[in-house]
Structures are given as C-alpha cells and as structure tokens.
Specification:
CATH superfamily of one domain: Tetracycline Repressor, domain 2
CATH topology of one domain: Tetracycline Repressor, domain 2
Number of helices: 9
Distance between the termini: 58 Å
Largest sheet: none
Low-confidence stretches: none
CATH architecture of one domain: Orthogonal Bundle
Oligomer: single chain
Strand content: under 5%
C-alpha cells in the first residue's frame, strides 16, 4: 500500500501537470493505486490532499533552486546570482510549467483555502534564503532587496512560461544583477 507521502507526491505531479480543478479524485486514486474511500480516509477530502501535495513539494522545490546556487558559489552575492542561473536551467526543461506554488495560488479561487498558507510558507522560505544572503552580502536594505529579487524571480518564471522562452530569465538575471549592484556597498 502506498504511503501518504507518496500519494501526496503523486497528487502534486498530477496537479502540476493537469491543474488542480481538472484533476479529479478518480484520477488521483487510480494514480495512487488506492480506492477513493482510502484516499478520503487518509486525507479527509480533496482539499486535504491538495494541502498535503503542496507540502510535499515545499522543501524539494526550494532545494532544487537553492542547492545548486549554494554549490556553485561560496559567497552570498554569488549565490544570489546563481539562483537566477539555476532558474534559467529550469525553464529550459521540457516539463517546465511555471512555479507549482504560484500556479496553485492562481487556480485556488478561495483565498481561505488552506493550501494558500502552504504557498505563502514556501515563498517566505525562498525569500528568507534570499534575505540572509542579501544581509550577508552587505545590502543597504536587505529586506527591500529580498522583496525585489522575489518579484524578479517570480516574474521571470511566469513570463518564461508564457513566452516558452528563457529570454525573460536572462533579462531577470540582468535586473537582479543591477539590483544587487545598487544595494550592496562596495
């Protein structure tokens, strides 16, 4: 029998590939190899499964971006630059469908849906990572720089999806570089 973690991960794949509202409980239970009844017993509802699915993505997606950035540079400024290099690599993958968290936030019309808290937590985790590096790099206002870099990062993901091109990410790297230059004391 599939574990709850594995079921949540399978659901996350289905939601990201097909959309949350387009993915029914029948398809989810078939993908997991369990009955609908078992799915409801384990997660309470489709909403419970949605929350578990995005919780299962949180750390892996975070590490997918930050891990390579940290490995590529040993300086805070270099790691911030490398975050955008990693984004460029990700948007070139054939399976790139944008940020799963932004997609979920856009698709879930009910702003009180519990998955919105998971999305916020994920975005804050990434912004926190950026904030630490901005502070360590000597930014005049690390809070402001971290917010600006998040906007550039998220905007590049969205625009790269719309254009099916890496050009928005290349532009974002230039914008991020200019923001870093302006914010970090020399």
């Amino acid at each position: 029998m599939e574990s709850n973690e594995r079921i949540a991960a399978l659901a996350a794949e289905q939601f990201h590939a097909n959309g949350i509202t387009s993915t029914g409980v029948d398809a989810l239970s078939r993908a997991a190899g369990i009955s609908k009844r078992t799915l409801y017993e384990r997660f309470g509802s489709k909403d419970g499964l949605i929350v578990a699915a995005y919780e299962s993505l949180d750390v892996p997606v975070f590490l997918m971006f930050t891990g390579p950035a940290e490995a590529a540079s040993d300086t805070p400024r270099g790691q911030l630059d490398q975050l955008f290099v990693q984004l460029e690599a990700m948007v070139q993958l054939p399976e790139f469908r944008g940020c799963p968290f932004s997609n979920a936030a856009a698709e879930l019309a009910d702003l009180d849906h519990p998955a919105h808290e998971v999305v916020r937590r994920h975005k804050e985790r990434l912004r926190g990572w950026i904030l630490v590096r901005a502070r360590d790099a000597g930014a005049k206002d690390p809070e402001e720089l971290s917010r600006q870099l998040m906007v550039v990062f998220a905007g590049a993901q969205s625009q790269a999806l719309v254009e099916r091109s890496r050009l928005p990410v290349q532009d974002a790297r230039e914008v991020a570089h200019a923001l870093l230059d302006a914010a970090i004391r020399r």
